[in-house]
Amino acid sequence: MYDAGKIITGLVIFLVIITIPIWYNVASGKNDEKLDPSLPKAEKKCIEPTDYMRESHMDLLNQWRNAVVREGEHNYISSDGETYRMSLTDTCMKCHADKEKFCDRCHEYVDLDPFCWDCHVVPQEVK
Asked: In whole angstroms, what is the distance from residue 56 CA to residue 48 CA?
């Protein structure tokens, strides 16, 4: 028990280091920020359920890219059986026309720079 002070000091330092991300988020206030992307007014549903699109839209877009470019497929059959054209600009951006208020808002929040626009032309904002 002669090293009890060193052990307790080491545990305290360890706990401080492990909890730095929590303290950083509390100090920056970023975890209280509520995302409010501009959703389309005319459409009531997306090609897949909302939760799936929030979590996995990037996987879907990668699958679309591979299917169109590598396999020559152009139609996507959604989970509810509807057929959609596999196109970022013609399908997705038809409803989500305001890239700045929809795409950019979430991608900036998670500090992500998607590579969609390396090949695709950024659509003109709807006035």
From this structure: 10
Structure tokens at 119: 């090949």
59 three-class SS: helix
DSSP reduced 3-state for 28: helix
Cα first-last separation, the chain: 73
pTM of the model: 0.66
- 48-78 residue pLDDT tens: 998 899 899 999 999 999 999 999 999 999 9
For CA atoms 102, 104, 105, 109, the dihedral sign is positive
* Contact yes or no for 83/75 (Cβ under 8 A): yes
